Amino acid sequence: MIDTEHLLYPLIRQTDDEDYALASPFTAKSYDYVIAVLDGFKYDGFSVPILFHWFQSPFTGVGTPAALIHDALYASELVTRKTADLIFRDLLKKYGVGVVKRNILYQAVRRFGWYTYNGHSAEAVEEARRFVKIETS
Hints:
Elements: E1 12-14, E2 20-22, E3 26-30, E4 33-37, E5 42-43, H1 64-76, H2 81-94, H3 99-117, H4 122-129, E6 132-136
């Protein structure tokens, strides 16, 4: 039996040819936030253009928990985009992503993340909020 309360990395399952979902709850702490993502949350890993998969593939690497939390925060819009991006950078560091790669990934979401963050419908945000819970400690 897997101890899902103490997972260091999220468990994901493929739901069809292109989609993945969280297979068990996952929690991360960053700054004063405790972010819980419930099983069933749809997740696409690192959102990296295929041309750059050599640098960071969607579902491999030590930073995948940071990508999950970042996707959940963007989708649910429970914090500002800037806060979500700072949490992403903090979690990349906590999970051992090197400083150069961490800063490249952070700058990418700062420069291009607005497109995704601002592109959600009210229904999509409401749906995401069913799966994402955030508390301050």
